[in-house]
What we know:
By secondary structure, this protein is mainly α. It has helices spanning 2-8, 11-14, 18-32, 35-44, 50-72, 84-95, 100-119, 122-129, 132-154, 173-190, 196-210, 235-240, 244-269, 281-298, 309-314, 320-336, 345-359, 371-386, 390-407, 416-434, and strands spanning 78-80, 157-160, 164-167, 303-305.
Amino acid sequence: MLKRIEDYFEFAHLGTNWRTEILAGVTTFLTMAYIVLVNPAILAQAGVPLAAVTAATCLSAAFGSIVMGLVARYPIALAPGMGLNAYFTYTVCLKMHIPWQTALGAVFLSGVLFLLTTAAGIRQMILHAIPHELYAAVAGGIGLFIAFIGFHNAGLVVADPNTFVTLGNVRNPTTVLALVGLVLMGVLEAKKVRGSILIGVLAITGIAWAMGLVHWHPAPDGFHALADTAFHLDLRGALDKGLLEIVFVFFFVDLFDNLGTLVAVTKRAGLIEPDYSIPRLSRILFADATATLFGSLAGTSTVTSYVESTAGVAAGGRSGVAAIVTGLLFLGAIAVSPFAGMVPEAATAPALILVGSMMLATIAEIPWTEPLIAVPAFLTLVLIPLTYSIANGLGFGIIAYAVLHLASGKLRRRDWLLYILAVLFLARFVYMAAI
Length: 435
């Protein structure tokens, strides 16, 4: 039986084993478990019951990750997306005064749109239309993005009213511990120690607990809390209020955030084919679409693939078993509500920084001496972290690619979909500027 499972997940072909996949799944969970605290805190401001959305966050992350692992067999974990949850709360609910139940209805409709476009092959066509040089820029940009998040969480980079960002207090205990963790993980990685990131996270967590820097109080809420959000979505309200533009934004942003994350994770894992195609792409997109539908039914905003999955890949994860392990841990997090609070940012921040640095290797694939490619790639690379959005960076890159090729007379008929994407991205930027 065990051999059949290993054959299904292609352990021999991928050069992996149970220990490595389990370690990778745990590593991914530890680096993205912050969502169990952050997502409920954001959605609660829209009026969604805190305990219920905490359980919904864990359950939807578990469902999405397990489906991804079982069906698509990739080490990609899913959870309610950052950015999309902020749009849900601050724009749709608070600014537009839409009830959270109606907003969940819009999320559900966007999930249906995901599923239909996946079944029709449209999402796959979009992925194939993007030049492979931009894939490398996206992967590198996401590396800078998650490294920036790591620097911020470590307190090493802080906001500044004059220079936007500046150096934080390096004497802060959290910052010191994060730097110690970065050195520890870096040394272990240099020595080719499997599970180096997980070892570093656990070591710094232990030190932080010993120093009294972790203040964690488990809550008693569990599955029963879901009753306050499960199936509370208002589909009729979403249709009656004409929320098509909101559905479109949910769909559009998640589409490109997901595609960007997908490219980054598969490139880091070495799972992209020589012709830049991704095996079982339809299954990956199906898992993403069904996770969004499930999340809206459970009571949370759009569920999408997480760039933190690259931490598990860096720890050696190559198969769907890693994603399943992550999903099971999210399922267990419901019972302790939430277990993730035990791991401090000082432990996860260096993991994000280290993984981010590794992902920059992809930019070597970009021909920097060719302006028609280098300029779009550069915009993609830097605007992902600077705008705090994968979709924004990719959008500017695609627009620049289309404009430069059009202006230089190098328009190719086969790139018709890319130009349509450029127009759609431009329309999105204009729309977002108007709201």
